[in-house]
Amino acid sequence: MSLKQLTVFVQNHQGSLVAITDTLAKHNVNIRALSIADTEDFGILRLIVNDTALAGKTLAEEGYLLKTTDVVGVKIGDAPGKLSEALKVLDENHINMEYLYAFMTRTEKHAYMVMRVADNQKAEAALTGAGFHIITDSDVEKL
Prior knowledge:
By secondary structure, the protein is an alpha+beta fold. Helix content is 34%, strand content 38%.
């Protein structure tokens, strides 16, 4: 049930990010969540998009180095403490968090988070058992 995340390695210079987002836009790929981390020479762009296969194919054809990673998407209440509740579920189930970031889409009552954890199946089971809704690729396509 994991989400497919694209990780794109980007040169750290002016215009690099614009080139990627323009390429995706030209192919009607909609970005739903993103995170970027940088070093002096390169950046790591993580994306959740409405069409992972098309985005991956398009970026690969443009010469970008990328990989697809399974991550956990979770819908949480949009109120103080709700993210902490989800993180506590993972902690109590001894699931290591590698990183997390938020979707750009939210509703009046919910926010959406992307979590990279050591064990996706265990995390999804623990979160579902605690009453959280797991987001799927088909959910992302509808956002």
